[in-house]
Amino acid sequence: MSELWYTEKQTENFGITMKVKKTLHTEKTDFQYLEMAETEEWGNMLFLDGMVMTSQKDEFVYHEMVAHVPLFTHPNPEKVLVVGGGDGGVIREVLKHPSVKKAVLVDIDGKVIEYSKKYLPEIAGELENERVEVQVGDGFMHIAKSENEYDVIMVDSTEPVGPAVNLFTKGFYAGISKALKEEGIFVAQSDNPWFKADLIQQVQRDVKEIFPITRLYTANIPTYPSGMWAFTIGSKRHDPLQVSDERFHDIDTKYYTKELHKAAFVLPKFVKDLTE
Amino acid sequence: MSELWYTEKQTENFGITMKVKKTLHTEKTDFQYLEMAETEEWGNMLFLDGMVMTSQKDEFVYHEMVAHVPLFTHPNPEKVLVVGGGDGGVIREVLKHPSVKKAVLVDIDGKVIEYSKKYLPEIAGELENERVEVQVGDGFMHIAKSENEYDVIMVDSTEPVGPAVNLFTKGFYAGISKALKEEGIFVAQSDNPWFKADLIQQVQRDVKEIFPITRLYTANIPTYPSGMWAFTIGSKRHDPLQVSDERFHDIDTKYYTKELHKAAFVLPKFVKDLTE
């Protein structure tokens, strides 16, 4: 009997490959090529333009580490914006913070939301929560027209190709700064230091020009290139390394801990060098 | 023109795949199947029984993190034993510590040493150093006949299949304890928490029965399963988390830093749970 294996070439010369039980859905949306598959190792997985976005087995790492690091850094986050993130995983984590009164999600591709609800219900389940407002639209434009509105902004985008290309520009970070309140913080996924060192350096440089506090942290995501994923923080006032112990409250997580909150910023030497 | 890709199935249903420029050597040795290949992404790579052992591009992570964590924890390491590690990478890092007067390497497979010298010269180059004694032999037996001899022992083995199966037993850890001096420390590679959680838990349990201080730390190794690799420390007196700032000295590294020495022990929640 033949076997179906999906291979993502993470670089021209290296990739991961996974055995597929069943392809659940494939569709060329208005913005990208969407695939949903049931894999043996990782459960259901979402691919956009051939790249792994999330899997049922390891999704908790990315979603927890995007959400909790900035949310615990801010002293009282009430209004949160998620740009991208149509699978709903970041929103699910955001809602674990009782201070958050409203979380707005703006994803350009309604199909990502639709098929995540269908095939990744434990990830997307909180998109229906009454504290959440889902908008299908352009995150860049949403940011551009927002002013002094959000406490925390999270950029949960694809790579800087296709629909996300505007989300890796200095103009976008300037827009984020304007959209944030005076104690605001943003976080953006920033790819990986092994294959995309230049991108990480460029984002660090650009964000530093706009935010007085700029930091980089990492987490281990097995289905993402190199297994080490980077996140950039830009903050107007609060330093993620200076969070007091009393700020933390108990939260149900599988990856994030308050100790890891700080340790995640301690970088391997070759990664630290990219931030200097 | 056809392309040659090597695929390592890291689990039954998941693997990494890499484009090969050229196969440099393949041989069934007395102990394992050895392959050396020149890859596009990672440079020259050594495979044993189909598993990636090391690559020129990412080898520094494993070798630095095996060597420097125990060596900086011990106040004055003079005599060091490396079990396995025939590629010479751990030895190269050990020699960066001026206190080390003698480093003994015992690898069961002389062919690993021979072909590492030939195809991984910047990894194996220090095997000829006058402070190094290379023995081709059984590390388990070497440990069994050693008493109160070493300050630090490093177990740089393959997985617990094939020749390394004895190196994951309680009897082996008891032997290590006897072979160490009274301030002795050992470290062993312990696979990864995503696919081998049971193994990590078992090693933690076994080592705790013998060593008063037992710790787990991790590092990101892109060519190893899941990208997160675990290392177990067993120590008679010195705690790797209690190293004073004055103990550290400058050392030329690409991954290890004195800050990372401590941060590497701060584990994601699901990994921490394996140690309790």
UniProtKB/TrEMBL annotation, chains A, B:
Q: What is its EC number?
A: 2.5.1.16
* GO MF entries: spermidine synthase activity
Catalytic activity from the UniProt record:
S-adenosyl 3-(methylsulfanyl)propylamine + putrescine = S-methyl-5'-thioadenosine + spermidine + H(+)
Catalytic residues of the enzyme: 156 (proton acceptor)
Answer whether the UniProt record assigns the keyword Transferase to this protein: yes
- Pfam families in alphabetical order: Spermine_synt_N, Spermine_synth
Q: Where is the PABS domain?
A: 3-236
Write out the residues that bind spermidine.
63, 87, 156-159
Q: What class of enzyme is it?
A: transferase
* The keyword Transferase is annotated on this UniProt entry: yes
Pathway assignment = Amine and polyamine biosynthesis; spermidine biosynthesis; spermidine from putrescine: step 1/1
Its domain of life reads: Bacteria
Alphabetically ordered keywords of this record: Polyamine biosynthesis, Spermidine biosynthesis, Transferase
Which positions does UniProt annotate for S-methyl-5'-thioadenosine binding?
A: 32, 107, 138-139, 163
Subunit structure of this chain's protein: Homodimer or homotetramer.
Under HAMAP family, the record lists: Spermidine_synth
- State the family it belongs to: Belongs to the spermidine/spermine synthase family.
Briefly, what is this protein's role? Catalyzes the irreversible transfer of a propylamine group from the amino donor S-adenosylmethioninamine (decarboxy-AdoMet) to putrescine (1,4-diaminobutane) to yield spermidine.
Query: What NCBIfam families does the database record attribute to this sequence?
Result: PRK00811.1, speE
Protein name (database record): Polyamine aminopropyltransferase
